[in-house]
Amino acid sequence: MNHSTVILEADKLVKTFGDSTALDGLSFQVTKGESLGLLGVNGAGKTTAMNLLLGLTTPTSGTIRMFGKDLWKHRIEILKQVNFSSAYTSLPSNLLVWQNLTVFARLYGVAKPKQRIEELLELLDITHLRKSVTGTLSAGESTRVNLAKALLNEPRLLLLDEPTASLDPDIADRVRKLLRKLQAERGLSILYTSHNMRDIEEVCDRLIFLHGGKVLAEGTPGEVHERFHRSSLEDLFIGVARGEIDAIGLKPL
Amino acid sequence: MPFSFNTVSALVLRYIYLYTRNPVRFVELIFWPLVDLLMWGFLTVYLKKQGVGEFPTAITYLIGGMILWDVLFRSQQGVSISFLEDVWTRNLLNIFVAPVRTVEYVAATCVVGVLRVGVTLLVLVLVASLAYQFHLTDLGFGLLPFLGNLILFGWFLGMISTALIMRLGQAAESLAWAVPFFIQPLASVFYPVSVLPEWLQPIAMALPCTPVFEGMRTVLAGQPVPWGSIQHAFILNLIWGTIAGLFFAVNLRHVRKAGLLVKVATQ
């Protein structure tokens, strides 16, 4: 692997909360233009990993480097090149869409905020929502506005936490296609968590299957489920969730 | 320490949008202080008519105390309510993963505190002047340092309240309103510090707002501005500012370590 193309590098990340170990030595890399999925049942460590990568939680041990720099030593410089969208956060509901985007464009130091906002509204097909009150948007519209916010600074790395949760299949499909398009056109690197196997299969080049804070499996979506003789990623997920790990011969890597 | 005024202005712009988009929020800034002013005002008018005490000086003590207390309270609210606004709108994570330094975030909430003080003060000064012939400008050259010290102390109390809410979670959000009232009985807002039990007086005088309220009474009694009291308040503010800053930083480090920031943001 060419190290100059490594965008994100997590090395032996450990996070404990009291006696409980949420992450136990997670290491991985994301390269330029790559889309990596973090998959796992509830409590597997996905959210903890995401929070560590976003600098919201500090690791017990281990290091995170983005663009070759230590996250905690160069936090602001790094965050200018990263962005985030989650189904579990929202933009202030009583502000208009353009007001929310203007504030975040300024926070990220976007050079021509108005022009950039217009470009993104057009790209995401939500120009008509410019003057809408954010809190009145449907789930699909809200997701696209959140994505517009996440793309404002033309990030080199996009962290997405279940971005298609609560979306109908049509809108979810559009979002996945859009992410693929952005990835192809702009060399965007994506770290993606989801419970939706279709998301992972369609968007991610590679996935890491977490279980109990450890890496259970790693590879392309096809490789992972075939390796464990399951018919699909979803089948593998259900097997892990139901405690059939030993039965299907899975061992942490 | 690196600091971006653009980031602070973007955060302040967000609060301005929040307030202008929802005029009901102005009710909180104007309605309650106005109710307080009218109650204290009519009470003092009644007492004045009874001919009890040293009137009319005492009436100005009560109204002046009430207005200056509100300066401290609104300044504190600017910091802690701004933080809660981000929690309530589930926007906190978006802010904390943006390139915003903690010092810039706190600075923006402090600016919001000043703006809140400005709106409330303007209304109270006008009503007090028209209804009770109380003129805040009677405090003369002492007015600005009095206000400055109260705003500073309000910021520091706001930082302490916010740090406690971050640490204890949303269940503790009532602290945003309660913290200033913990100190109010000692702050000598409506009575001189000398009426407190002797053992409480040194504790009262360790609060930066106490010399301000004492100073206000001195000026309203026709004495010159007590610059010594102002200096005393400022020195106490430096100490309180250091304590509040350290308290905030230590708590932020703890909530990041314990994963509490995410919890409070997504509860």
Description:
With 253 residues, chain A is α/β, with parallel strands linked by helices. Chain A has a domain at 3-81 and 155-241: Rossmann fold. Helix content of chain A is 35%, strand content 26%. Chain A has helices at 46-53, 75-79, 97-107, 113-123, 139-151, 169-186, 197-203, 221-227, 233-241; strands at 6-17, 20-31, 35-40, 61-66, 69-70, 82-86, 157-161, 189-193, 206-211, 214-219. In chain A, the strands form two sheets. In chain A, strands 6-7-8-3-9-10 form a six-stranded mixed beta sheet, sandwiched between helices. A four-stranded antiparallel beta sheet of chain A has the order 2-1-4-5, covered by helices on one side. In chain A, helix 6 links the parallel strand 7 and strand 8 (189-193). In chain A, helix 3 (97-107) packs across helix 4. The longest helix of chain A has 18 residues, at 169-186. The mean pLDDT of chain A is 89. Chain B is an all-alpha fold. Chain B has one domain (5-266). Chain B contains eleven helices and no strands. Chain B has helices spanning 5-21, 24-50, 57-88, 92-96, 102-132, 143-168, 175-183, 201-204, 209-220, 227-258, 260-266. The longest helix of chain B is centred in the first third of the chain and has 32 residues, at 57-88. Chain B starts with a helix and ends with a helix. The mean pLDDT of chain B is 91. Classes of the chains: A alpha/beta (253), B mainly alpha (267). At the A-B interface, helix 1, helix 2, strand 6 and helix 3 of A face helix 1, helix 4, helix 10 and helix 11 of B.
